[in-house]
């Protein structure tokens, strides 16, 4: 991650000395000249480290300089004091300053002290980002399989892990594209650095560019202060761009420029910042076909697809389903606190026969639901959703014509039955409007009266893929 350092120092010689001796690829200096509104500009910069002259701090109110404690994002603050007074230094430290340096010290001692501050801040940022990582870290071993397609696929993956080349991961919804990207990062040379994921379909165009490249104060309505983007945060690490096919063409052009020049310019800014990141993009679209149809930039497609990996669907690896089910039961037992030891043979048989339009993600959801509903220590056929356990009886019309209630309803609460029926209705309704709109998610969301992000979430839940509803699509399974 790139450290942003703001300098508000009166002595020009010291400013120039610091910038010259502390220059680094992961440090960006911004100089603010002393003046009437200089302190306001410091506050709005959103820096990691602030180095200021004591004389630039606003006049204290009743002897209290708590203004230091009011800085946003809790930056590390270094004050260059013109006084050697221990008492004055103590007051500054009590007010929220992290380090006080006497301006009369030899120049090299000041530089060395500030270098130490920057190193400490870098370590703090790394520890903070490490603390946000999930307890379970994806590994390539998660993809070990008895299926020949997966074995061949993983042999290719292992060859590209040590590189920093751009990577494009293709595959149906739910096959585990992000999981694979995280595993590649975790076992590659950048594993000690950040992994930053951005969903390009979940954000409007202006917000997407702000998320990717950051923005300057006043760049647009609501931009009250500077903000770093995902590329800066992922410096020396990996950035994962999910649903890259949904990125607007204008944003694609800006992304291409970053990939070509290794520099980002914040929205509303003029300066560029060098970034060193590995880009992994993912899509469930055929991006080559999209590029020929001019819905995706062809030059960006070639830039991203230095190596292209197409993850096999779960239908292509049915022999792995029993092992996957056992693995997910073991993992989920600890997470949800249910002591479930296995699955009945007839229930497992139904899982192996299902077409899994939502792939591994759908399988995980089905297993978790079954574990929550099962009354014993084994998942039974009745614990599975009706569409899987009794595929011939899943339509609403079939259920309403039955004289007797479905067998799987016995022993279940009204709340549990209602949830299952609601899922069937939602799936049928979403299938209808996506068919009517030709897979246009934005238009379908408008007709459904929900936000497009909410529609994407439901599509993932039910294994619905927009390309299946487009003209010439492959159709439902």
Report on this model:
The protein is built from 19 helices and 14 strands. It is of the alpha/beta class and 477 residues long. The C terminus is likely disordered. Helix 12 packs across helix 14, helix 17 packs across helix 18 and helix 18 crosses helix 19.
> First CA to last CA: what distance?
44 Å
Alpha-beta content class:
alpha/beta
- Say which CATH homologous superfamily of the largest domain is assigned: P-loop containing nucleotide triphosphate hydrolases
Q: In percent, how helical is the residue content?
A: 40-55%
Tell me briefly what this model is.
This protein is an alpha/beta fold.
Salient structural properties:
4 domains, Helicase, Ruva Protein, domain 3, 14 strands, alpha/beta, Rossmann fold, five-stranded parallel beta sheet, disordered C terminus
What is the element layout, followed by pairings?
Blueprint: E1 3-8, H1 12-21, E2 27-31, H2 38-44, E3 49-53, E4 76-81, H3 86-94, E5 99-102, H4 107-131, H5 148-160, E6 167-170, H6 177-186, E7 195-199, H7 205-213, H8 230-233, E8 238-242, H9 249-261, E9 263-265, E10 272-274, E11 278-283, H10 287-292, H11 298-304, E12 307-310, H12 321-336, E13 342-343, H13 345-353, H14 359-373, E14 378-379, H15 386-389, H16 396-401, H17 414-436, H18 441-448, H19 452-462
Helix pairs in contact: 12-14, 17-18, 18-19
């Amino acid at each position: 991650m790139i450290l942003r350092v703001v300098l508000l120092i009166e002595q020009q010689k010291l400013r120039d000395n610091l910038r010259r001796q502390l220059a680094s690829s992961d440090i960006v200096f911004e100089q603010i000249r002393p003046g009437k509104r200089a302190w306001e500009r410091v506050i709005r910069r959103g820096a990691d480290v602030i180095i200021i002259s004591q004389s630039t701090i606003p006049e204290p109110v009743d002897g209290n300089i708590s203004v230091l404690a009011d800085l946003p994002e809790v930056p590390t603050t270094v004050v260059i004091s013109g006084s050697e007074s221990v008492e004055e230094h103590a007051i500054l430290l009590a007010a929220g300053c992290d380090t006080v340096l006497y301006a009369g010290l030899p120049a090299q001692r000041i530089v060395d002290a500030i270098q130490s501050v920057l190193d400490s801040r870098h370590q703090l940022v790394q520890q903070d980002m490490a603390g946000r990582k999930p307890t379970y870290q994806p590994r390539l071993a998660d993809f070990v399989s008895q299926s020949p397609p997966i074995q061949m696929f993983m042999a290719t993956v292992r060859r590209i892990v040590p590189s920093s080349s751009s990577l494009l991961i293709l595959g149906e919804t739910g096959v585990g594209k992000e999981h694979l990207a995280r595993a590649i990062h975790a076992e590659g040379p950048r594993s000690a650095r950040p992994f930053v994921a951005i969903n390009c379909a979940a954000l409007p165009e202006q917000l997407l560019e702000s998320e990717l490249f950051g923005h300057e104060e006043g760049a647009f309505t609501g931009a009250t202060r500077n903000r770093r983007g995902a590329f800066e945060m992922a410096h020396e690490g990996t950035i994962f761009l999910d649903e890259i096919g949904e990125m607007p063409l204008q944003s694609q052009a800006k992304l291409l420029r970053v990939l070509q020049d290794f520099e980002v310019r914040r929205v509303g800014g003029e300066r560029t910042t060098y970034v060193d990141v590995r880009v992994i993009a993912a899509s469930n679209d055929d991006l080559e076909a999209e590029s020929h149809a001019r819905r995706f930039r062809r030059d960006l497609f070639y830039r991203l697809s230095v190596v292209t990996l197409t993850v096999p669907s779960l239908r292509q690896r049915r022999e792995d389903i029993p092992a996957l089910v056992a693995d997910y039961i073991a993992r989920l037992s600890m997470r949800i606190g249910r002591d479930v030891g296995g699955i009945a043979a007839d229930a497992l048989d139904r899982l192996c026969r299902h077409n899994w339009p939502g792939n591994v993600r759908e399988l995980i959801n089905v297993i978790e639901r079954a574990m929550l509903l099962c009354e014993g220590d084994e998942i039974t056929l009745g614990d599975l959703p009706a569409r899987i356990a009794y595929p011939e009886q899943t339509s609403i019309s079939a259920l309403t014509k039955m004289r007797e209630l479905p067998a799987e309803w016995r022993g279940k609460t009204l709340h549990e039955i209602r949830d299952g029926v609601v899922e069937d209705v939602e799936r049928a309704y979403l299938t209808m409007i996506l068919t009517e709109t030709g897979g246009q998610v934005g238009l379908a969301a408008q007709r459904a009266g929900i936000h497009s992000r909410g529609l994407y979430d439901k599509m993932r839940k039910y294994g619905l893929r927009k390309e299946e509803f487009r003209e010439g699509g492959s159709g439902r399974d």
